[in-house]
Amino acid sequence: MKCPHCVYSNPEGVKFCLNCGHEFFSRDNAHQEQNSMFYEFAHFVDMVPRYERSVEPKFRNIFSRVFRRHSNLEAERLFIVGTALTTPKIEEVKETWPKPWLFARVFLIALIAYLGLYLGVSLFGNINFIPGLIVVGAFAVPFTTLIFFWEMNAPQNVPIYKIVYVVFIGGILSMLVALVFYDILRHNINPITIGIAEELAKVITVVYFVRTLKYRYVLNGLLLGAAVGVGFAAFETAGYALRSLLSGSFHTLYSTILWRSIFAPGGHVAWAALTGAAICMVQGDKKFELNMIINPKFARTFVLVVLMHALWDSPLLDIFPVGQVILMVASWILVFRMIRIGLKEIADKKMKLAYVH
Q1: CB 45 within 8 A of CB 33
Q2: Which one in 185, 231, 292, 333 has a CA-CA gap of 20 to 30 Å to 41?
Q3: Which of 21, 108, 1, 111 is nearest to 64 (CA)?
Q4: Are 269 and 230 in contact (CB under 8 A)?
């Protein structure tokens, strides 16, 4: 089955092109989609002709593939991207909103594993299941969120093994740097200094990974920043879970894992993703320089992230969990705005290359 979009030869039975992700559908459906009321409204609002639109105005369809059936070939195609042989050229990258789906399968697998470990501890009383319960519980939601960011990385130039490396090394490194800042600020610990110490530690770690020219897109910074945030969040959750267990309360252990998992996507993961994207936005095609951190584009994002972190830890938000929910929603509004900026960056680069050729 040849893809009409990129002429790639796909095996029979797949619903999406394994090369470009283009969906196979009939001409009637395509014609109906192109003339939908939503397109007409988007055209009216943007005042941009359809053929010049850099980002497909169909955000409401971003999760449309989650509940569809997908073949193993489609999953395998996703896991091999980012190598020297499988990274697409910029001309081949789609600048429309990706439609991720694998993250939902990863979450389901992690949930099943956690439930199995939970039964081993609560039903059978086997303490050998406790380390697995803490580790899986700490990583399940943050890692699921990371897979979402990985699927949203339109350039497809970061391999999965690199992401796993950043999660573990970046998570540990950022926590160690944060401890150094805490030691410096040990006589002045408050929500603001906590926000500055932890977010600056993650920024320093993200800069280490995005400083090379290989990962220079805004969406790359978003992904690598999220990976650092995942490591930080998961290791921190595992630590709090262990403390709860040492207090002698299994109820507190389960409660700690549950609530920190629920809010993990809108905390460390989203905040580190935003600062990582801002670093790449400022860096562009140049090598990283220290004065880039005072660039207004990055400084605004960093200050905003620190303020959200400080509010999260502030006694002003004693109306738990309402305050955290509001901050989580605000964080993801900024994340999706940054994704749009990243997609527009790809469209602009493609346009420049088109003019050159």
Answers
A1: no
A2: 333
A3: 21
A4: yes
45 CB contacts (<8 Å, ≥6 apart)? none
287 in Cβ contact with 215 (< 8 Å): no
- Name the nearest CA neighbour of 161 among 82, 102, 72, 225: 82
**337, part of any domain:** yes
For residue 155, which of 209, 100, 88 has the smallest C-alpha distance?
Answer: 88
Residues 25-79: tens digit of each pLDDT: 544 444 444 444 434 433 443 343 333 344 444 566 788 889 888 888 888 888 8
Q: Lowest-confidence range among 24-33, 133-142, 232-241, 279-288?
A: 24-33
* CA gap 256, 253 in Å, rounded: 5
- Say whether 62 sits in a helix, a strand or coil: coil
| Any domain includes 67 | no
What's the predicted TM-score (pTM) here? Answer: 0.83
At residue 9, the 3 state secondary structure works out as strand
Instruction: Identify the domain containing residue 185 by its residue range.
Output: 100-356
Which of helix, strand or coil describes residue 16? Answer: strand
Count of other CB atoms within 10 angstroms of residue 42: 18
Structure tokens at 75: 């999953």
Work out the number of other CB atoms within 10 angstroms of the CB of residue 19.
Answer: 17
Query: pLDDT for 77-120, tens place per residue?
Result: 888 888 888 898 888 888 788 889 999 999 999 999 999 999 99
For residue 314, what pLDDT is reported? 85
Q: Give the Cβ contact number of residue 122 at 10 Å.
A: 13
Q: Which of 323, 301, 299, 300 is nearest to 313 (CA)?
A: 323
Answer yes or no: is 169 within a domain.
yes
Q: In total, how many domains does the chain have?
A: 1
Asked if residues 226 and 149 have their Cβ atoms less than 8 Å apart, the reply is yes
Q: Read off the tokens for 237.
A: 């959750």
Q: How is 263-315 classified by DSSP, letter by letter?
A: HGGGTHHHHHHHHHHHHHHHHTTSPP-GGGGGSHHHHHHHHHHHHHHHHHHSG
